[in-house]
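Section 3.1: Structural characterization of target chains.
Under the original work plan, the team committed to producing a structural model for every single-chain target entering the pipeline before any wet-lab resources were allocated. The record below documents one such target. The sequence was received from the expression subgroup and is listed exactly as submitted; it comprises 211 residues.
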Amino acid sequence: MSEKTVWDWTTAEFLAESASSAPTPGGGSVSAYVGALGASMVCMVANLTIGKEKYKDVEPQAKEILAKGEKLLADLKAGLTDDISVFSGFMDALKLPRDTEEQKQARSAKMQEVLITATDTPLGIAQNCYAVLELAKELAPIGNKGAISDVGVAAYLAESALKAAMLSVDINLPQVKDPSYQDKVKTERERLFAQAEALKKETVDIVQSRL
């Protein structure tokens, strides 16, 4: 690819690069992209609710959901960019010299640093996907009924993206040597998985009742 950033690519270019042998965009980046699509569906339905006479009573709530959705969309886009950058940092750390004991120790310390960043980044993507789920649940009972199915789409996408992003956490976490950090991440993983599934089901049930 050229020197264009990922956000200069067309959708076709993004898919082609993801499908190629290039290491990025990888799973974390693709998960962020899917999560961003979920956030975009929340924003769309909120936009379709605002300004409609039929939904004037819930307009303040819809506006608040829209503002939060737009921020999550921006955060997930940033997460995608960060995920690509983190991988580059990881590869740079692997190339550090290890001829002397001092170099080996410096390389090991740097590897631990980038491994934590490479875990925190997809974890942040997953947390933002969870926040998209929360917004979808809030929007489902009040959003424009003509587009309410897209709130269900947001819920399905956000939950899937959350679980997908967590695989990037799972592959990096075992290499982190700090047991307290490992425990903290595992606890958050369990919380997100349990609550996300419940949120998705509740949201989809509400959506189905309004179809």
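The CA atoms of residues 140 and 207 lie 6 Å apart.
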